[in-house]
């Protein structure tokens, strides 16, 4: 296992002088004190504005931990994290989507988005129009009056994405957002997420265990080692996406090459013993 990040030939990981939207510096995270579970690090990672970074790695390697640290839900045991130059502030600087949609079942679809707008401090008079615009953005126009239990799992996850986008910050964090969905719904949502975020300048960090999802979505993929997670591969994914539908994209030899490279790194990481 290389101790230095393995970067593709011609790759351009952000230089230290480039402005980073998210800067993770020498972070270590251990659960349960010094004698506890070393989950992550040491890890240094700079994520520039507007990138779509996908984190992959073996189960339990610390991917979700890193996402929670960036979200500000937990404090690192050591090292520093900044978002837009500030320490992370939970619920304010990033929209977060989890594997389960975590909606309020007693509210309508629109009511769920409106509650996120309220939490984000949007004036009440703007709630209805903004909620409708967000629902339209995630392909759920006309469903605002329905209850969350009346819509499919894929639609519920779309509502969760609309709620995350309601925070109206340039950072979106997604933790295995499509893992609980069937493969057809998953592929449709992947494509829609790509379109919703493309060209908006939103910085996206997504955790997945799917190598295909990483290649399909990412502008850059980072593979973590077995626990405690460290970077073993930092690979820009620069595919000719314009004008290609998902099947055409997946059929490109460059796509297969990225899959192979990432898949190999993940398998090698999974074979490593944890400490
Ligand atoms: P991943 O997302 O890569 O599957 P996690 O970040 O969820 O990994 O977990 C990394 C390691 O930290 C795992 O061994 C997990 O069991 C442990 N862990 C995660 N959360 C906690 C916690 N709250 N308390 C103790 N150990 C935890």
What would you note in describing this structure?
The chain has 275 residues and is α/β, with parallel strands linked by helices. The chain has two domains: 200 residues, 3-Layer(aba) Sandwich (Rossmann fold), CATH 3.40.50; 69 residues, no CATH class. The protein is built from eight helices and ten strands. A seven-stranded mixed beta sheet has the order 1-10-9-4-8-7-6, with helices on both faces. It has a three-stranded antiparallel beta sheet with strand order 3-2-5, with helices on one face. β7, α5 and β8 form a beta-alpha-beta unit. α2 crosses α3 and α6 packs across α8. The radius of gyration is 19 Å and the shape is globular. The two termini are 14 Å apart. It binds adenosine-5'-diphosphate. Adenosine-5'-diphosphate binds next to β3 and α1.
Which terms summarize this structure?
single chain, 275 residues, alpha/beta, Rossmann fold, seven-stranded mixed β-sheet, three-stranded antiparallel β-sheet, 8 helices, 22% strand, binds adenosine-5'-diphosphate
